[in-house]
Design a protein that fits this description.
heterodimer; A: 133 residues; alpha+beta; Arc Repressor Mutant, subunit A; 4 helices; globular; B: 736 residues; alpha/beta; 6-stranded mixed sheet; 23 helices; 19 strands; elongated; disordered C terminus
């Protein structure tokens, strides 16, 4: 059991949720999703994003249309379908429950490791010198 | 210095370094393989490639002259490598958080697609020539699929097709799956470095040896064949039969080459080529290899895993056995259905595979024929060259004047030797794989050869001129008529003793110092016009002019002796280097009166080109040149008697032979007649049957009118024929 593994698992779990929430705001170009995630300090490889989008699209959660671009061939812009919106709703609910649960549980330790504000998460690295005991 | 190429990548023209391009190809290829099982594989790859193209475009717009390896590396790093994806996936499969579970429901194919399957044998849909059986087996055994393919081919070739049977059975039984070929280095045919099929080039890459080594090994039987046939067949008669191809060692190599040609895939893409060359052995790859080895955990973990697997397997087995009985039937039917369904698309690839094999076999066949012809030509050339060298000591006797000598040398060296050297150079070059560094070499060879050709033509022309005219000088030998009525013909052993080194050309010429020994002598026996024996001989020679030819003929030193009814002929005569060889020859004619006998001694065989000719035209109108080619001959050590019809054997052997021959011909004619008779009988019978049938039909369909017009009955027969055929046709179709 190493720390990196656990961390990446945690990240991965919320990845889909985060991507969907970016797309929910409106039509978006995949590399813009990457940018936004980067800004939020949630790094994701582009190579993993495309398969994910394709799978979501094939599951009818997403749709796309071709948008002409000034610099070359048209680009794919993704948006949520109704089914996708419903799916997102469910995920959001789950997430909120989870967040609450996590918060409640971690509060017991008297420490706040993460704050959840709406749709973005900000991870505060724990200062490390504080002993939970 | 790096080569930059322009590529059209997703609708954008991108200048890219060649090495970077290969890297890019390798990357996309790896993605393709990684996503092989994904539903939207092409779409995903397209999206990724679009994005990469966009990034390239941006870079070019920013002012980069071309895409370098470094930029490809950075871009692929940001896209993520297959290893990155794998890591993510593996994490995903082991985690079981609530959130992920909901996600994985939408992307069930996400996990497990690229697991290296241990313990389950299947066919590989990703890498196949026919049905993917071999590469599936290879995947199971974790070896290069090529090795398995070669083994299969060997079993097929050596085991009377058992390989095919096993293959088909496995094709039916095994399920198809997309597997990764997890081998560091693969055996390909190398299209960049090939002489015939690129097999040697691929082998060289695989075993990391210089390319000429496998080539020499494959060529070895050929080279040995050339050398041995040079030694075995000393002068003229070369054995062109291609033992070297079918015999033992050589045959094996030949077949091996063809098998490899069929079995090995051609390294067509950059990835193939990289795989063919294999990875460089450096710290990184060793590290990778070690990590891979340790990937499954420590040995302890592994053994635990194994135990688990075995347990699982046993459990599965027991359940399978209990359930299996009922399911076997259904399974087989579904399997066969699946096979049938699969067979349709596979048929094409299978067809392509078989087509490839047939194509290779055809190619090999034609190459083989061409090779044999080329080999024969080479051998003939070498043979002529050797013959030329062999006849060179004689050239003094043939050639006249400096120019002829020069032309002779030119012909030998340039006309015959140059092509041999050029061919050998070419073969060695091909084997070693160096390209001609000197473009003028070909021209040089060509030029020299043309000079040689000119020499050859001059030599032939001027040499032929020396034989333009022929002359003869007839002489008569005075003889005393033998009292016993019988003449003996003998050829004593040569007066000229041959010593020292001897160059022999079929014993026609023998050289001894400065004189050439010729035994161009012919013996002819004809019927005498009177009741006396006559012996004449004719000295003949060719020459540039009538006078020269005559002089040559006169200079022939040939003598006959007659003593005590024994005619002694010289075995041959000599020609000095001064008088030259101008086709000097001697014809001896013996006239035997009717009723008298002549005994041809065994020693007459010593006349090498002796032709004892009987019953030729009478004296006077005997033209030597015509007669020289006539093939009259007879046995020696035989006594003959002259009759009105010509010479006959005293012991009557020839008569007996005649009778036998006649008997045989009569017999043959008889059997032929017999056969003809049988044939005719058969025909008669057929015709009779036909007539009977006709009559019965006529009766059946027209009982009132006994003698219907023939036309009508024919029509009826036709009708019957069509009628009887009609109901049968659908039946046969159904039966099929």
């Amino acid at each position: 059991m190493n720390i990196e593994n656990t961390q990446s698992q945690m990240r991965k779990g919320v990845l889909e949720f985060c991507i969907l929430s970016v797309i929910k705001r409106g039509e978006v170009y995949p590399s813009d999703i990457i940018e936004e995630m980067k800004k939020a300090n949630l790094n994701i490889l582009e190579g993993t994003l495309y398969p994910l989008l394709t799978r979501l699209k094939n599951a009818d959660f997403l749709t796309y249309r071709w948008v002409e671009s000034s610099s070359g061939p048209p680009r794919k812009y993704f948006s949520l379908t109704e089914k996708g919106a419903a799916f997102y709703k469910e995920l959001e609910q789950t997430w909120n429950e989870m967040a609450n649960a996590v918060q409640t549980v971690t509060k017991q330790n008297g420490r706040l490791n993460a704050t959840v504000t709406g749709e973005t998460i900000t991870v505060h690295p724990s200062s490390g010198n504080e002993n939970p005991l | 210095m790096k080569k930059v190429i322009n590529i059209n990548f997703k609708g954008r023209v991108i200048p890219i370094e060649e090495a970077a391009f290969e890297q890019l190809q390798k990357y996309t290829e790896s993605l393709r393989r990684y996503f092989a099982n994904e539903e939207g594989r092409d779409e995903i790859i397209n999206d990724i490639e679009d994005r990469i193209a966009e990034l390239f475009d941006e870079e070019v717009k920013k002012g980069a002259t071309c895409i370098t390896e470094a930029s490809v590396s950075s871009i692929t790093a940001s896209m993520g490598s297959v290893e990155d994806f794998e890591q993510m996936d593996n994490d995903g499969t082991t985690s079981s958080t609530n959130v992920h579970r909901s996600a994985s429901s939408t992307s069930s194919a996400y996990a497990g697609s690229e697991e290296t399957t241990r313990g389950s044998l299947s066919r590989n849909g990703n890498d196949k020539i026919l049905g993917g059986v071999c590469s599936g087996l290879a995947n199971y055994l974790k070896i290069d699929p090529t090795i398995v393919r070669i083994l299969f081919a060997l079993i097929t070739f050596g085991g009377f097709g058992t390989g095919v049977l096993i293959y088909i059975i496995m094709w039916i039984i095994l399920p198809i799956r997309d597997l990764k070929t997890n081998v560091r280095k693969r055996l390909f045919r190398n299209p960049d470095d090939k002489v015939i099929g690129g097999v040697a080039g691929g082998l060289a890459n695989y075993f990391n040896i210089p390319v000429w080594v496998p080539r020499v090994v494959f060529c070895l039987p050929l080279i040995l064949g050339v050398i041995t046939s040079i030694f075995r067949n000393a002068w003229f008669d070369f054995d062109f039969e291609p033992d070297f191809v079918f015999g033992g060692f050589g045959g094996t190599l030949f077949v091996t080459y063809i098998i490899l040609w069929i079995v090995l895939p051609l390294a067509s893409s950059a990835t193939d080529k990289l795989q063919m060359r294999g990875e460089k052995i450096d710290v990184n790859s060793i590290k990778n290899a070690v990590q891979e080895e340790l990937g499954g955990g420590t040995v302890k973990e592994r053994t635990a895993q194994m135990v688990e697997e075995i347990k699982e397997g046993a459990q599965k087995m027991s359940t399978a056995i209990t359930e299996g009985g009922q399911r076997v039937g259904a399974e087989i039917s579904s399997k066969s259905k699946a096979f049938a369904v699969e067979a349709a698309p596979v048929a094409r690839s299978a067809g392509a595979g078989i087509g490839h094999a047939i194509g290779v076999l055809f190619k090999a066949f034609f190459l083989f024929v061409a090779g044999v012809i080329a080999f024969a030509l080479l051998m003939a050339l070498i043979g002529v060259t050797i013959a030329g060298v062999a006849t060179f000591p004689f050239k003094g006797f043939f050639l006249e004047g400096t120019w002829q000598h020069v032309a002779a040398w030119g012909t030998l060296l340039l006309f015959f030797l140059v092509p041999v050297i050029a061919l050998l150079t070419w073969v060695i070059r091909k084997i070693i794989g160096t390209k001609s560094g000197n473009p003028y070499l070909g021209y040089t060879f060509g030029g020299l050869w043309v000079i040689g050709l000119v020499c050859f033509v001059i030599l032939i022309a001027s040499f032929g001129n020396n034989f333009r005219v022929s002359a003869h000088e007839p002489q008569t030998v005075e003889i005393i008529q033998p009292a016993s009525g019988k003449m003996l013909v003998k050829v004593p052993s040569s007066k000229v003793k041959i010593y020292g080194r001897r160059f022999g050309l079929d014993e026609v010429f023998t050289m001894d110092g400065d004189s050439l020994y010729i035994n161009n002598i012919r013996l002819r026996i004809v019927k005498s016009t009177d009741s006396l024996y006559h012996v004449t001989f004719d000295k003949r020679s060719s020459g540039q002019s009538k006078e020269k030819a005559m002089a040559n003929a006169r200079s022939i030193q040939y003598s006959l002796n007659f003593k005590d009814s024994v005619l002694t002929l010289d075995r041959g005569f000599t020609v000095s280097e001064h008088s030259k060889f101008r086709n000097q020859r001697v014809a001896v004619t013996i006239e035997v009166p009717v009723g008298k006998r002549i005994y041809i001694d065994k020693s007459v065989d010593r006349l090498e080109w002796h032709n004892v000719t009987f019953n030729g035209p009478r004296r006077g109108n005997w033209e030597w040149e015509d007669d020289w080619d006539s093939r009259g001959w007879n046995d020696t050590d035989v006594e003959y008697v002259m009759t009105e019809d010509g010479l006959e054997r005293v012991d009557g052997k020839d008569k007996q032979q005649d009778i036998k021959n006649k008997e045989q011909s009569i017999e043959e004619e008889m059997t032929e007649l017999e056969e003809q008779k049988k044939e005719l009988e058969q025909k008669e019978k057929e015709l009779k049957d036909q007539k009977k049938e006709n009559d019965s039909l006529r009766y059946r369909y027209n009982p009132n009118q006994q003698k219907a017009p023939e036309k009508n009955s024919k029509q009826i027969v036709e009708k019957i024929n069509t009628n009887s055929e009609a109901p049968f046709q659908p039946m046969t179709l159904n039966a099929l």
